[in-house]
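Aim 2, interim progress. The first record below pairs a target sequence with its structure tokens.
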Amino acid sequence: MSIEETVSTVDPAFSPDGAIVTVLAGKAKGTSARIPGDLGAELVVGKAEDCGLVVPDDTVSRRHLAFKRVEGGIEVRDLGSTNGLKIGGARVQVALVSPGTIVRAGDIELLVRVELAGVQVPVSESSRFGRALGTSLAMRRIFGLLERVARSSATVLLTGETGTGKDVLAHALHEQGPRARGPFEVVDCGAVSPNLIESELFGHERGAFTGAVAARAGAFERAHNGTLFLDELGELPLDLQPKLLRALESREVRRVGGSKTIAVDVRVIAATTRDLPRAVRKGEFREDLWFRLAVVPIHVPPLRERLDDLSLLIGRMLENEPDLLVSEGTIAALRAHDWPGNVRELRNVIERAAVMARASGDPEIRLYEALSDAASPDLDPEDVFRFRAGTTWREAKARVDALLERRYLSWLLERHGNNASAAAREAELDRKYLAELARKHGLLRR
């Protein structure tokens, strides 16, 4: 195909500061460079040593292409290269791109994505984004970013502790975007049996395996023209990760036991409680899949780091209980708690206290007893495994995980005289991660 002066159909709506280009293959695989933020500024890519992003592969010219800030977003332009510039298989001269776009230079693929470290994200003027609430600076920064991300189809990776509301943000992102009228499909990668997860994602044909009595569409097909939310992505088996990568690259899936490919148009939002960069370093998660998913990575802070949101969150949780009052003393008690279960734990505590208030005829919410039960570091394991009607799988798993973390870290730190570095070496954990877990459970001071 001859080179033509053309503009890509890739959505240019989202082009914030923090945009970077990452090399996905070749000698410079994993190398990234930031696209300068000033209007008209350029990032030149090529083999020459004076390029902003040096890619020393044979199919790349000395000065192959350039990314440039323009009024409409980020422009990519061929600089007269030998092997050309391609987007989506079409050879182009000039195109507008946004995070998530794959640009091909010769045999090398470049991914436009976002790296927010050190970037000042504009703060939203609103204290809500969809059903997500927050008056704290941390949450309004996230809302400000999501307001811009929602207009594009960029893949978003939400990270953070269990119970922080990543699923609520994912649903709000879908509702605020151009795919709001399409389906919103959820796959919890940690709750589906490993031998069934492939079928859940990609579907299966009749007779593909024992029990497959009829053909079934997978989550990718069901989410066509909508959004697919992959929750607990870090639990996805390693042998299935290449298949997910291919689906993200080609936007096609093949059912288990099937022979034909099915085109799908979905926006992917993923969430995980795991430290995926660390999992990549340990060989537990594919680096190329990490890059494809972390186009716009957003860390959701734990509740203990945004205590200013407590009053707003409690008000939402008690909106159907207008006669119940929450005193300043109760709020003070809530602020003193460490909230290892985050917003999910807060909801459980508030609901339990509301039931107690209604039963006693007391118009005031009194949390001290309910809160002390939830916060007790000496919680009886029998109570953890005593399930109540209405308890979800996530809530039960969060209580078990919290007990395991607290008991194991307490034993480990005592064994090493409260030396976090020595404890981390024995547990084969990153020292900063272990220290943060220990602080979460009140085992270390900051």
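The second target in this work package is listed in the same format:
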Amino acid sequence: MMASMSDEPQTRTLTKPPAAEAATATPAQGAAAPPLGVWLTRLLIVGLVLTALNLRPAITSLGALLEEVRTGLHMSGSVAGVLTSVPPLCFAVFGLTAPRLARRFGAATVVCAGTAAIAAGLLIRPFAGGTAAFLAASALALMGIALSNVLMPVIVKRYFPDRVGTMTGLYSMALALGTSLAAAVTVPMTSALGGDWRTGLGVWAVLALLAVVPWIPVVRDRDGTAPAPDTATAGESAANGAPRIVRSRTAWALACFFGLQATGAYITMGWLPQIFRDAGVPAGTAGVLLAVTMVMGVPLAFVIPRVAGRMRQQGPIVVVLGLCGLAGYAGLLTAPAAGAWAWALLLGVANCAFPLALTMIGMRARSGTGVVRLSAFAQSVGYLISIPGPILVGALYQHSGGWNVPLALMAGLVVPQMVAGVLAGRDRTIEDEA
């Protein structure tokens, strides 16, 4: 698949977008990346895939070994709770810095540096001498993830303006694969390497270091992800109305959609095994059911963006995913154990709203400058929205003594997610509204 894509570098960078994506391309895209050679284009694709693989193992590998980490660092339960809420907070805070860094250094350079920060954080974290140092190293890795989260759609828009859906699907699939892989293999890999949790966490730095390599030739050749002078960027921003993104209804709708789908995903990752265990499902089976939910994102993360990229309005996909989520939560309420596999599959489909949101970020702005601002705004605001959800579900579970109230809340959140997604999926751009 990668070879077939890389045999057409001129098509990706210079060809006028087809009618299906005409709404996302205008003459303003003349500022898109200059054409790369065949090998640099191939390296860019490899870099996108490897970076995407590294955007979640820092989180899911820690979750798999959290008990061992708590014991090893003498970490209190409250501090461990703070640790689990750090990722969305870091994504929101550090994601806001991405546009300014991209304007100054170029998006590819920032992604390269962000991937290096992930590697450094993962390498330092296991050997931290205490809880504070562990949190600081985790924050370093999460900073790199946050910058890459925001700028990956920008690079796709700049280098592949006519294949936004395909390339978004490719790296979304890699992201889902990295998430599932780290969750599934961290514990057995730690056991195979001697049983030390420090080794089990630190080994993921190797994958991050590998991801840095393809970016180096691209950055050294030229960073085509941003206009060369700062004045050009400022002029483009003024022309497109990008600084007024807070006035765009589409931007706010996309931020709400992103935040609500992230809320559902974090709740699912954090609480789904416990829901099944409380229903009488064995602990081992409950873990497998969560893995099934996460693995569903691997193929669908590639298919959904490609389909969405061919549609002028993505509302129908939003509705289908939302209905799957509602059906999954309804099943957990009525027959959690009897239909456990069906509910896990349905929630896995519903969680694929994430790659759809990334695709819409690339389609709701005409220019690279618009995309970087929209990506930073939607993801930062969205992750802030997602922070209270898992905490609230845990509190409701503790005080109600069961899952009926939390599940009703989770199902209720799907409705505004569908509304926001339909509004965000309309055929318009933030430049039209600013």
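Confidence is low (pLDDT under 50) at residues 1-31, 224-243. This observation will shape the mutagenesis plan for the next reporting period.
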